[in-house]
Amino acid sequence: MSFFKAYDMRGEFGKDFGLDTVYRIGRWLPAVLGARRVLVGRDARLSSEAIRDALCRGLAESGCEVDDMGLATTPMVYFFTAQQGYEASVQITASHNPPSHNGMKVSRAGAVPVGYETGLAELEARVASGALPEPQAAGRCRTVSYREAFVQWLRARSGDLSGLKYAVDCSDGVAGLIIRDVLGDGPVYLNETPDGRFPHHAPNPLETENCAQLMATVKAQGLDLGVIFDGDADRVMFVDETGAFVQPDYLIPVIARRFLAREPGATVIHDIRTSRGAIEALQADGAKTVMGKVGHAYAKVVLRETRAVCGGELAGHYYFRDFFCCDSGELAALLVLASVAEAKRRGTSFSALMAPIRKYANSGERNYRIADKDTAIASVLSALEHFGPPRERVDFDGVRLEYADWWVNLRKSNTEPYLRLIVEARDAATLKARLALLEKLLAPFGAACGEQAQGTHTNHA
Predict the structure, then answer these.
(1) Is residue 404 scored above 80 in pLDDT?
(2) Enzyme catalytic residues
(3) What domains lie within the chain, and their CATH numbers?
(4) Stated pTM of the model
């Protein structure tokens, strides 16, 4: 069943899954997780309300006490799952996927993520069996409201933004439910009203065309930066005062500095795709860095295991120990805004703040539609033996090879039918040469699919 992914459940509604599947998930989820008190939230997609109804009916018929918080950002659901002591939660969302898609992100008690390896595989098998669990005494579903409490929690963590000129693009997603109440009337707001049709642009800020409106606004109005959320606000990204996209992993050190100032030497996590510039900046600030697999279902576990203060990923997820080890685009936005405002008061622009981190040439993450991914990776690794032994090799989540003046990560996507490649080098010329070689090596196995995460393709010191 293609609906069940590595980190969540996601697909095209009416094609990959329907309301009967959702109902069956509701019936089986309590047994899989051992949960009886469940929190449910949803994004603004047109199918989300019907999915909520089917899910809550299934949960209630399995004896659960279900609290429906209605429209919510995914971080809101994570936060109140842990804070209010729920035994499980489900956020109905397809995040950055197209409007016709939907899905569910599941958490256990404490907002611990449920991925394919930690519960979704069992859930998939039970749903696919066609059977249903034994009937239970009927539960109930009631409406709860946590919006104001979340707004107040975020307001208490907003820094001094005086003098800062910026725009916020909500991408027609659920960030618009709360962001004005958190930030006030200071920013220029774009696409603030939640609309599950996403009429202005797709809710995926990693694709350049979806940031075009924000970039144009920042340049036209002479702003200091722009902020853009994805559809469910668990990810956030930024453009600098020139309108240039800031690769999300470059911001991990900027966010971490605020925590390292009060906890010197603390651990900060990052994924296997993270720029060497970001890792070096973290280490220069005294952080102990830990590399992990891509994806929130893995990152949150590593954050808990290492007691890291925070962490981040190339995709724009930022995780916080103080946020129950979960990701929050809203909290990350507040921290970056405060850092840029502070830099501005020192006479430093956002681009200048990022320059010491954004010092290498980076390809961004490139996607290739390749059927035999394992053979392709093995072939590339064999050819790269020409460069001699790497100074470091990381063998989880694909492979990352570190050489003196460049590095490469090749990995199979956990959510899409792609082989993903990212390369970083000391300068643009070296990047161009290494990327040309790698693309030549991959060419016999398949073609670049034309979809790629934004990167700073020619930045160099």
Answers:
(1) yes
(2) 95
(3) 9-145 (3.40.120.10), 149-246 (3.40.120.10), 248-327 (3.40.120.10), 361-452 (3.30.310.50)
(4) 0.94
